[in-house]
Design a protein that fits this description.
Metallo-beta-lactamase, Chain A, alpha/beta, six-stranded mixed beta sheet, 8 helices, seven-stranded mixed beta sheet, 315 residues, globular
């Protein structure tokens, strides 16, 4: 079977794929763009992986913030990011909330959480994750935990809804699934967006689309994929299936291009996604890291990763 453990070992030992870019990735500064509000009411800045600043009708939400150099239990070793963060925490505009999907290291970075905790930013997270946040120094008074289908209203008339996801949690050897993991719906009077965080393809996606769609923007993970991991990570092909289940609209791919967490080439998820999306007539936006975009104003795919491919060392 293609998704078996032997296939993973074979790919790891003999795949020969370049999982780390040969040259630095382009990173843009969003600071100037942030000085003025989005003309359409909805703007998003991708920081890499699953970290995004979502500006929606006057409300600012930061998702799964990882500003550290490594996605690992130790802050100075492990999976190192391919690119610098496009803005420092202290350069961010005022945040109304941090949205934290689950407790894996590539989504919940302890130094980042501690810094945000000192800033007093409210956290909205999955059931059980609040205890971890408190251990990192976040005041319990600013933490809101949600079970699936529960809602929380943010100041500024945004409702955040925790939705089901097919994944798992844990940061050590003995705490697997001790806390919940979630996908998220963000809803205002004018806009609705969906943030998948980590998930495999599942029927709940159609339920989410029926209950809360259509969405102005759908952010789905496409990286760190392998046939053996299809139950917990979408990958490009299943991301497009999930997109259709959610009701379509505009797709922003996330969870790729920042850390070496899988066996595929670093750019493969994006290249595969845009090719399949073009065949299927699906609207995709692919901003470079740090570019603040208003999805309604973007008219075409930006295949920025191909500039790095032309510089690749093929020796």
């Amino acid at each position: 079977m293609s998704g078996s453990s032997p296939s993973i070992m074979r790919d790891l030992l003999f795949g020969g794929k370049k999982r780390v870019p040969h040259s630095p990735l382009p990173v843009e500064s969003p600071l100037a763009t942030w000085l003025t509000p989005p003309s359409t009411g909805l703007r998003v800045t991708w920081f890499g992986h699953s970290t995004l600043l979502i500006e929606c009708d006057g409300v600012r939400v930061l998702t799964d913030p990882v500003f550290g150099d490594h996605a690992s239990p130790v802050s100075f070793i492990g999976r190192k990011r391919f690119h610098p963060v496009p803005a420092k925490l202290e350069e961010l505009p005022p945040l109304d909330a941090v949205l934290l999907s689950h407790d894996h290291y590539d989504h919940m970075c302890r130094p980042t959480i501690r810094a945000l905790g000192r800033m007093g930013v409210p956290f909205v997270t999955s059931l059980g994750v609040g205890e971890r946040l408190e251990k990192f120094g976040v005041n319990a008074k600013v933490i809101t935990e949600l079970d699936w289908w529960e809602e929380h209203d943010l100041p500024g008339a945004m409702t955040v809804i925790a939705a089901p996801a097919q994944h798992f949690s844990g940061r050590g050897l003995r705490d697997r699934n001790a806390t919940l993991w979630s996908s998220w719906v963000l809803r205002t009077a004018k806009h609705k967006v969906f943030f998948s965080a980590d998930t495999g393809l599942n029927d709940d996606l159609a339920t989410i689309g029926n209950r809360f769609g259509p969405f102005d923007l759908i952010m789905l993970e496409i990286g760190a994929s392998h046939p053996a991991w299809a139950d917990i990570h979408l990958g490009p092909a299943n991301a497009l299936k999930a997109f259709e289940m959610l009701g379509g609209g505009t797709l922003l791919p996330i969870h790729w291009g920042t850390f070496d967490l899988a066996l595929h080439s670093w750019e493969e998820p994006a290249e595969t996604l845009v090719a399949l999306a073009a065949e299927q007539g699906i609207r995709v936006v692919t901003p470079p890291v740090g570019r603040a975009i208003e999805p309604a104003l973007v008219t075409e795919v930006t295949p920025w990763w191909r500039k790095i491919l032309t510089k690749r060392d093929e020796r």
